[in-house]
Amino acid sequence: MPELSLLQRRQRVLGSQSPLFYDKPLHLVRGEGVWLYDADGRRYLDVYNNVPCVGHCHPHVVAAMHRQAATLNIHTRYLDEHIVRYAERLTATFDAPLDTVMFTCTGSEANELALRLARFASGGTGIIVSSYNYHGNSASLAEVTTALPSPEPFAAHARAVPIPCLYQAAPGTSEEQLAEQYAAKVAEAIASLKAQGLRPAALLIDTLFANEGLPRVPAGFVNKAVALIREAGGLFIADEVQSGFARTGEHLWGHQAHAVVPDIVTLGKPMGNGYPLAGLVTRNELVEAFGRSALYFNTFGGSPVAAEVGMAVLDVIENEQLLANARNVGAYVQQGLERLAAKHALIGDVRGKGLFFAAELVRDRQTKEPAGLEARRVVNDMRERGVLISKIGAGDNILKLRPPLVFGREHAELFIDTLDAALSAL
Amino acid sequence: MPELSLLQRRQRVLGSQSPLFYDKPLHLVRGEGVWLYDADGRRYLDVYNNVPCVGHCHPHVVAAMHRQAATLNIHTRYLDEHIVRYAERLTATFDAPLDTVMFTCTGSEANELALRLARFASGGTGIIVSSYNYHGNSASLAEVTTALPSPEPFAAHARAVPIPCLYQAAPGTSEEQLAEQYAAKVAEAIASLKAQGLRPAALLIDTLFANEGLPRVPAGFVNKAVALIREAGGLFIADEVQSGFARTGEHLWGHQAHAVVPDIVTLGKPMGNGYPLAGLVTRNELVEAFGRSALYFNTFGGSPVAAEVGMAVLDVIENEQLLANARNVGAYVQQGLERLAAKHALIGDVRGKGLFFAAELVRDRQTKEPAGLEARRVVNDMRERGVLISKIGAGDNILKLRPPLVFGREHAELFIDTLDAALSAL
């Protein structure tokens, strides 16, 4: 029998449906900073991964993990200084009254817990999400997911609302009108829940709308939507799994761009630079009230190792000034993408915040017909050229560009030049 | 303002309801093998924690984590040798046809995913659990939980069945009769679901029944219950979060004692010796069919770091012969507990498997009245005497004794002597 390839062995033990990137999957063996290395020693510029937000295998984070794992790694049913110090430092980065944290291991667990809290606090069950959302892999989240296939039918207690984008708006529509039109859809969704006898519990959104393709959301839309859910007795849950930890270059948290304080903020992916660390931050009285009715315990959540890793990530964000870097290098990348848009008609729109960009590929700048096949070819060609990106959006035609935050100008130049070449070769 | 204590600071940032062990919580700073050290340098024998199954901060596991975290830590959308090798080694420890693994980060996520798979495969929604169960902290699990408070009402699609215990059986009842009586309750639960128009999806149990207090389950009960759920079209999910990884001293997996192969086995706590690593093992066709309808992805699940940590745990279990140790030292502890039972009337029953014991405290050996207050005093007194244990069961009167698997005879002696002293001092 011929020896099985790594891909065949993987398919045998993990199943053939476990998702892989690229038509020709990449076999990685090493990571460092913004670089990933394959089994043949070739290096790739990582313009996709936000989990290693301070860079792959950052020595300060690795050292913190190692030191604490060699000293004490235990659950939160004992007193421990590390988790208290980390919780104090983390909550201090949020606006009042967000002062209390519950730790989990994954963003899915954080959003799952947020829904439990919101339902408890509101007495309702209704959930409003965006019409192209993904917030996690649990059953409660799968049944409100619209961006990925799941066997669970869309929940009767959920409503999906479209997110407005100025790029896609009908000509002549003002920003204010667009915000009003789409806020009206949130109001309709709430009315529809109520008509069915369901009390709204939460509006669950990522205020950067990453899965939706970073739409150019009109000013005021998020604030109006939040006002509506609160008026209806529901809570506003801001999912910062993608937009948090300095990603936007403006604030540490994505929701801060909207000058609205959420009721619950959920955290995940970049929080531990790859160590499974996540959680939610909310008002103290919400945690206290929930805690009087529920014994919530997460065995690995909030361990001393998780705390030291989380602390080390915050250290690096501060010490290496990654918020300013996201802003400065982000602006540089934005200019580069705009130059490419001027050259390549395929790029219908370029938008971004900090070090998170979307380049929407269209077959026709008038009709804005999604160029999904072209996007796929670009993503795969970029991989062959040594630059890792991905794509998102309902039409699968929006390039998703989201490098580790230690991305520098030299990396930006390499990325832009390679994208230019890939677009020219189409 | 006076400086806040660590406990006060913790309550402020984590909430006052976040659970802590002991009337006087323990402030830990270091762990090694079966020992935990507090902030004053005092050491405690750990007779409670199963997560550090190969011992606190085992150097082989810490080194594997460190080495891999410094090299590559990425999700499973790239090819990676570590996760394939670990999946191959892990699945090889299961009986056919259990050959495929899906990785998660926590036992809650594993059980949550198992329910999604079972519902998909069976086309049903009904869940049968034990009447004193806890399988995780998600909404779907909270609504079938009976052992912990949760604000979610017990689900209309769930039924809780009592687990038989020979110690609690009416005098004159044979083991076979008891198994039949309680299997009949499973049949009733299934009939009750069907009467409500609900198709059964799964029987979800820990075959060691750890939360229930390690009852002396009559031979044949588990097999009968499994046959009934399968006959009704549902799946058998064996939760090995507590009973797996050599804990029972007989087999690597607790369910193997019943000579029945589950449809899905869920794994958690000890799997990564404290690193957030969990998952489920099932038949390939189940994963394939689910995967064609659902895109399941777990960002941190199955990372190279998780794989290397999991591999290191299996190494230590093998190299240090911890299955045999659990059997041998377990038998020695069992004898010690039986000696104490002969001496102290408070101990109504002693039972265990490998290195997992329950000592049921009763006020009267005839009425078997639960001695919950006494159990609490013993647990707290043991802590003062430097030995960490806990308690379980519906009456909160069953001492829960579950040390790391590197527990030796000298530790067993210290534990038995200390328990003797604590019981004598009551």
Produce a short descriptive summary:
Chains A, B: GO terms for molecular function: transaminase activity. Chain A is of the alpha/beta class. Helices cover about 40% and strands about 15% of the residues of chain A.
Question: Can you put this structure into words, describing what you see?
Answer:
- 2 copies of one chain form a homodimer.
- Chain A has 2 domains: 6-54 and 321-424, Aspartate Aminotransferase, domain 1 (Alpha-Beta Complex); 60-319, Aspartate Aminotransferase, domain 2, CATH 3.40.640.10.
- With 426 residues, the first copy, chain A, is of the alpha/beta class.
- In chain A, the strands form 3 sheets. Chain A has a 7-stranded mixed β-sheet with strand order 4-10-9-8-7-5-6, sandwiched between helices.
- In chain A, β1 (28-32) and β2 (35-38) form a beta hairpin.
- Chain A has 12 helices and 15 strands.
- Helices cover 38% and strands 17% of the residues of chain A.
- Chains A and B meet through α1, β1, α2, α3 and β4 of A and α1, β1, α2, α3 and β4 of B.
- Chains A, B: InterPro entries: Aminotrans_3, Aminotrans_3_PPA_site, PyrdxlP-dep_Trfase, PyrdxlP-dep_Trfase_major, PyrdxlP-dep_Trfase_small.
- Chains A, B: Belongs to the class-III pyridoxal-phosphate-dependent aminotransferase family.
